[in-house]
Automatic annotation (TrEMBL):
It is found in: Cell membrane. It comes from the Eukaryota. It comes from Cercophora newfieldiana. GO terms for molecular function: voltage-gated proton channel activity. This is Voltage-gated hydrogen channel 1. Keywords: Cell membrane, Coiled coil, Ion channel, Ion transport, Membrane, Transmembrane, Transmembrane helix, Transport, Voltage-gated channel. One of its GO terms (cellular component) is monoatomic ion channel complex. The lineage of its organism: Eukaryota, Fungi, Dikarya, Ascomycota, Pezizomycotina. The keyword Transmembrane helix applies.
Length: 172
């Protein structure tokens, strides 16, 4: 049985997660993550093209790619926390009913594990996860769809109010 405090916290969290602010935050973080991924790929290609084989600390390639990897790990952690909160709110059964959430959870957990655990050769093999992480672009589209749906519902409510007013005015 949930305590009143726990139930109130869940209700407040659920209310926040349904706001435009949350959707815009997620879109911004996803966009930042995708940009970091693309920058890492671009820098790796540039380094290869320039035959910069030394990516150790101190070189601009090593420093930049290291910072991008830290950024990716932090963002993966943020998305992992979001995933945990979503599961806490809806429960495992409700959360995993939709394939989109299942696949997104797989991408988030796999990305986090690779970002935190993988080093050296394993990290290079794990870089194949980039393809999956670009899946987050689809998450942006999903967030945009949710935002549009919320605006449509708000407009429907306003339309219903206006229709009732018109009917009252016509009766007069």
């Amino acid at each position: 049985m949930l305590s009143a405090r726990h139930a109130a916290a869940r209700a407040e969290t659920r209310a926040f997660l349904e706001t435009k602010t949350k959707h815009y935050m997620v879109m911004g973080l996803v966009a930042l993550d995708v940009l970091a991924i693309l920058a890492d790929v671009f820098i790796a290609l540039m380094a290869c093209d320039m035959r910069l084989e030394d990516e150790k600390e101190g070189t601009w390639v090593g420093v930049t790619r290291g910072a991008l990897h830290v950024t990716a790990a932090v963002l993966s952690g943020v998305f992992l926390v979001e995933l945990g909160v979503m599961i806490w709110l809806g429960g495992l059964g409700e959360f995993f009913e939709e394939w989109f959430y299942c696949f997104d959870a797989f991408v988030i957990v796999t990305s986090f594990v690779i970002d935190v655990v993988a080093h050296g050769t394993l990290e290079e093999i794990g870089s194949l996860i980039i393809v999956l992480r670009l899946w987050r672009v689809v998450k942006i589209v999903d967030e945009l769809g949710v935002s549009a749906e919320e605006r449509t519902q708000e407009m429907d409510r306003k339309l219903a109010v206006l229709e009732r007013r018109v009917v009252k005015l016509e009766k007069r």
